[in-house]
Hints:
The protein has about 220 residues and is of the alpha/beta class. Helices cover about 25% and strands about 30% of the residues.
Amino acid sequence: MQSIEGAVIACAGLGSRLGMGLPKCMIEVDGQTILSRLVRALRPHVPRIHIVVGYREDIVTEYCSRYYRDVVLVRNPDFRSTNTAHSLRLGSVGFSNKVLYLDGDLIINEESLTRFIENSVKMRFLIGITPAKSSQAVFVSTQQNENGDSIELKAFHRSPSAKYEWANVFSGPPNILRDGSGYVFESLQSILPARAQELQLFEVDTSEDLERAIAGLSVKK
């Protein structure tokens, strides 16, 4: 067993598909920014949080200096020409043990995240999956073990559609994204098959995703 040394949240992207002119982590949903939701959910479970900034980094920097002075800000000056894998790789610098990696556009159920972190300490890799609902989902092929108490992720794919999609959350060693190129799920292909766990979350990547998240949170009230 290896405890989680820290978390890396990728918040450097342009968010061009959403088109709101600010980092997606700063979008307010039900009175809270997505970043606040993530930081508050992570704080009880990890001793360090690295937030990778790029596009309009001043907004995130000022926000963290006001509310979350304990987080570490990591710059990705090449955010326009790189992707999330590069940001997560930059954010993992300084860690020597297991890391929890997350996109900065996720609204995650806190109990679901807690269970994921608790199970992460028991295995070298754990990959998050969620029921398919995003506008531009990366689907996953999965298989339950013989006892039906765990899920094995076999492959990522854009088509055909499937029950689950890649949740943009995983735990593993700090050098897992050492290449830092391509999509994150492409970097994870080499470790498959791997254990997976379902997370209750919404990814806010497009306006349709945002509407879906708002509606989903309203239903749960």
